[in-house]
């Protein structure tokens, strides 16, 4: 319960799949509720939270691209999928008494504020959760890249990549039983050993900006709070 957060402002990347749980599609209510509890546990520490949500639980641009349709069109559809997830997350925050605002990189003002950096910063300072929707607003990009971009823009202390695995391993633990998890690793080491942390664009942006990344398991109860308190949890990627 006691302990001081080591970060003032965090950028949490939640993939669409993280919201899906064990379902095959869409948003799982219980999973969403779990996310809200995790978020609350760090808000209670006075930490400011920006969230980038993915859309993979609903739609991915490459899926349409594979059918021979226009890739950019598919990507815009993917961005719209992230808006749905963002709206669900915002709704759940509000139902639980947490103030939240969706800011969208695509203009759909009936359902979300447009992304305006200054306004996002103001919301954050006021303790509101800011949910960044519609990715970067550009095709051929990912929500990981969005997390790096928005994280850098709002001056987050760290990008927290929420996954289903505990961290970054020396090899795929499903294939190699001798694989071990790193507690921390440098950007250069990750690059040299070809470890997948985020996609190349996201990784390059974080590395260039000296913005650390932590990969951790969001399904583990209390993990987000432990990360924020600087306790042993996940893998830190740093300069
Ligand atoms: N997307 C995009 N530009 C962005 C972010 C996302 O075109 O800046 C599209 C892309 O088609 C992607 C989809 O939105 O497949 C969903 O995002 P992502 O795959 O990153 O979601 P996640 O894997 O985190 O669920």
From TrEMBL:
ATP binds at residues 13-16, 56, 60, 163, 169, 172. It is an enzyme of class 2 (transferase). It catalyses: UMP + ATP = UDP + ADP. GO terms for molecular function: UMP kinase activity. InterPro entries: AceGlu_kinase-like_sf (IPR036393), Asp/Glu/Uridylate_kinase (IPR001048), Uridylate_kinase (IPR011817), Uridylate_kinase_bac (IPR015963). Residues 8-217 form the Aspartate/glutamate/uridylate kinase domain. It is found in: Cytoplasm. SUPFAM superfamilies: Carbamate kinase-like. Coiled coil: none annotated. UMP binds at residues 55, 75, 136-143. Its EC number is 2.7.4.22. Inhibited by UTP. Keywords: ATP-binding, Cytoplasm, Kinase, Nucleotide-binding, Pyrimidine biosynthesis, Transferase. Pathway: Pyrimidine metabolism; CTP biosynthesis via de novo pathway; UDP from UMP (UMPK route): step 1/1. Its main location: cytoplasm. Catalyzes the reversible phosphorylation of UMP to UDP. Homohexamer. Belongs to the UMP kinase family. This is Uridylate kinase. It comes from Sutterella faecalis. The gene is pyrH.
